[in-house]
Amino acid sequence: MTTSVAFEKARAEGRAALVGYLPAGYPSVDESIAALRAMIDAGVDIVEVGLPYSDPLIDGPVIQTAVDAALRAGTTTTDVLRVVEAVAATGAPAVVMSYWNPLDRYGARAFARDLAAAGGSGVITPDLTPDADDSWVPAAREHGLDTVFLVAPSSTDERIAMTTAACRGFVYATSVMGVTGTREQVGDAAAGLVERTRATTELPVAVGLGVSNAVQATEIAAFADGVVVGSAFVRRLLDAADPAAGVASVAALAADLAGGVRER
Amino acid sequence: MDTMPDNGHVLSADSTDRPGRFGPYGGRYVPEALIAALDELDREYAAARQDPAFTAELDHLLTTYTGRPTPITEAARFGAEAAGGARVLLKREDLNHTGSHKINNVLGQALLTKRIGKPRVIAETGAGQHGVATATAAALMGLECVIYMGEEDTRRQALNVARMRLLGATVIPVTTGSRTLKDAINEALRDWVTNVATTNYVFGTVAGPHPFPTLVRDLQRVIGVEARQQVLDLTGRLPDAVAACVGGGSNAIGIFHAFIDDADVALYGFEAGGDGVATGRHAATITAGSPGVLHGARSYLLQDEMGQTIESHSISAGLDYPGVGPEHAWLKDSGRATYEPVDDADAMEAFRLLCRTEGIIPAIESSHALAGARRLGERLGPDATILVNLSGRGDKDVDTAAKWFGLMNESGEVGA
């Protein structure tokens, strides 16, 4: 399934899509696969597979901790592709979330080719804006991958238009100014940003950063096409007594959030 | 200060089409959330440099507060005894207020912060020199100041931590990753993306996303502009070689830039070779790294085959960085400048020699340039004139040096 189909399906059900993030390789490659699959079974529509990076400058302490552990355990880009393949085999769309340097090092075209071959749907690039580099978009187009770029509350209307024009699949709107991590409040800026983004594109707009519970998911689902949850899932793995408990805890949160996006 | 020319010396002629690019290097690889702030900084800087009131205020501070122009000192004994008889001239950036070249950049960026109207500045620091300079400018201009410093560096540069706190800054030790400069930059960027509405990031070196490599270079360019004229006045000709240490590369770009169009002047950047490049424990980014993206710009960096940053190692906290400014990457590729590693032992030997021959205690960072000058002196012979950027003084390094030279007793005190 493509991300577009997943968003269509959610829209047909009169709700927002639920997008869940976990980094590949934490606590191990196989256990990250198990957790992502459990997420999908419990109602997550689209998964983001994080590619661990040494300098994750838009991530807060929770994701940093998990990613550092994944790197220390030796997780490679090839492992990430293996996770994508295993997750995409369930039929749910899997997108990679990656900082630019690991993709650049792998080679933009080679990564696009290998990700498409693994069944991946696309890539979210948190530190790559469409105007930063001209190698990624053509490589992704060639292999039919979604290019998901971020818009922020500080973006001008001109930049939002430039960004959404380069997006395929969906647009990622960051709800607040800041790094990843759970928050009490997910910001009034988000609704305004979604509105400004919709003025430039027909693509679905998913909102992320700070969303951690069903109440917040309901709140965001009222005005966005997708709700992205990351750190709250990672926190479940970090806090678990053992990997099996972590997977169960991730599934429980996913079920809760899936209820949240269906609440109205 | 000399009028600051456009980003377009001959080596970056394509910069009008692609602002902030030096050949394939530079650019802006950052989260969208930071673009508005970088654009604002770029815009305000472009306006400020055309504004006589801004340049006059900066000039006034550089003269009356920093003590510019800094002199050049003929290091006759050092040249004769330690550098193959070559004529060695030291550009005395160590004599600046706060003890290094960092103040040149910081005063300009703090004035820009006031012009933009933000009440808070943040900065990263390695050796602490940029942190001290930023804390100083913040105190002078009434700005709130937060400094991010790797926990490892807060230990080896404890004196500078105390100085920053005395100046009213909040120093936050960074405990992620290698706990050095690289991670301090990550944390500062995270702070900036969160607090960008009220905060300006006073970046310390010629790396990072556009406009920092250009902005910081222009503010450091005064070093070379002064030195070029001073060498001409003293010797009647240009130097044969210019030597500077390179971590991120701000003092090196500062002294190189005025000489770039002087084809007969060789430019040498000396990187931190740590335990030796062959050991893998070093910070010789250009010598042993490869092109990629770190901290918002494309340049050389130390990375593994997956594109993960490799931790750097150097006795010098200020050079302990796995990246380097994009203009250096371009100067390297174009062949205009040459970059070589100097390992810890050679740097410390040059440190000792300058103390003993000239009565000047240099920063360990600058000692890499001095070691490089020794090498160049041997290579070029006694007829050569070598201009060295003595970028900082060594007060902060006394503890490290005392340990290195065995001046401590068993309880770790400097005593009998």
Notes on the structure:
Chain A: One of its GO terms (cellular component) is cytosol. Chain A: It catalyses: (1S,2R)-1-C-(indol-3-yl)glycerol 3-phosphate + L-serine = D-glyceraldehyde 3-phosphate + L-tryptophan + H2O. Chain A: It comes from Jiangella aurantiaca. The complex is a heterodimer of chains A (264) and B (416). With 264 residues, chain A is of the alpha/beta class. Chain A has one domain (3-261): Aldolase class I (TIM Barrel, Alpha-Beta Barrel). Chain A has helices spanning 3-12, 29-41, 61-72, 77-88, 100-106, 108-117, 136-142, 157-166, 189-198, 214-221, 231-239, 243-262; strands at residues 17-23, 46-50, 94-97, 122-124, 146-148, 150-151, 171-174, 205-208, 226-229. In chain A, strand 1 (17-23), helix 2 (29-41) and strand 2 form a beta-alpha-beta unit. In chain A, helix 2 packs parallel to helix 12 (243-262), helix 6 runs parallel beside helix 7 and helix 10 (214-221) runs parallel beside helix 12 (243-262). The longest helix of chain A is centred in the last third of the chain and has 20 residues, at 243-262. Chain B has helices at residues 32-49, 52-66, 76-82, 102-116, 129-141, 151-156, 158-166, 181-195, 212-220, 222-235, 250-256, 285-288, 326-334, 344-358, 364-380, 398-404; strands at residues 21-22, 25-26, 72-74, 87-92, 120-125, 144-150, 170-174, 199-201, 241-246, 266-276, 281-283, 290-294, 297-301, 337-343, 385-390. Chain B is globular. In chain B, helix 11 (250-256) links the parallel strand 9 (241-246) and strand 10 (266-276). In chain B, 43% of the residues lie in helices and 19% in strands. Residues 1-16 of chain B have low confidence and may be disordered. Chain B is α/β, with parallel strands linked by helices. The A-B interface holds A 53-58, 60-61, 64, 68, 71, 76-77, 100-106, 126-129, 132-133, 149-156, 159, 163, 174, 177-179 and B 27-37, 176-177, 182, 186, 189-190, 193-197, 292-296, 303, 305-309.
